[in-house]
Every structure is written in C-alpha cells, then in structure tokens.
Design brief:
2 strands, 6% strand, 2 helices, 102 residues, 38% helix, single chain, mainly alpha, two-stranded antiparallel sheet
C-alpha cells in the first residue's frame, strides 16, 4: 500500500515533500514499489510525440550523397570521353611540325 505525499515546488525548481505518519521528512521522492509511476505519455509534450522518423533523415542523407557521387562520376566520365575524342580526331596531316632549317 503506497502513501501519497504532498509536494511543494520551490521557485528555484527544488521540491520538498510533506512528512509522513512517522514524522520523517520526505526529502527524497519514493522509489521502487512505493513510487507510483504511470508508463504513459502523460508528461510528454505534444511536440515530442509527433515528429519525423529518423529513418527518413537517414534515407534523405543517403539520396543526397548518392546524387553528389553520381554528379561527379558523370562529369568525370564526360570529361574523359571529351579528351579521348579530341586525341582520336587528330590526324598527322592536320598537324604539321616542321623542324627549323639552318
């Protein structure tokens, strides 16, 4: 059987409890079997109950990293293809290198 005590909240945020039948000062809140604790969301603010699932942020982060990687991969591949196309289009006839004559 648990006894309920009256608690007083001080302006600085500390709490004091009224003494029980034995005359003991109840400075420490009851714990264990004496504590009446409801395992519900009664003390949780409404904003904390409704939120975005962290898995969504993880998935969006993955998509962002994948998009950045694809952009650099595509850009590097395009630059490499352009440079190979430049060198493959060079003919010996177009480039005339003549050595200086003395």
């Amino acid at each position: 059987m648990s006894n309920t005590e009256e608690a007083t909240v001080n302006p600085d945020g500390t709490t004091t409890f009224a003494s029980d039948e034995n005359g003991d000062a109840g400075d420490v809140p009851p714990s264990g079997d004496d504590a009446e604790f409801e395992a519900g969301s009664e003390g949780v603010p409404g904003d904390a109950e409704k939120g975005t699932d962290p898995a969504i942020f993880l998935f969006l982060g993955f998509l962002l990293i994948a998009a950045i990687w694809f952009f650099f991969f595509y850009k590097r591949r395009k630059d490499q293809a352009d440079s190979e196309a430049f060198f493959s289009n060079l003919d010996g006839e177009k480039v005339s290198i003549s050595s200086p004559q003395n």
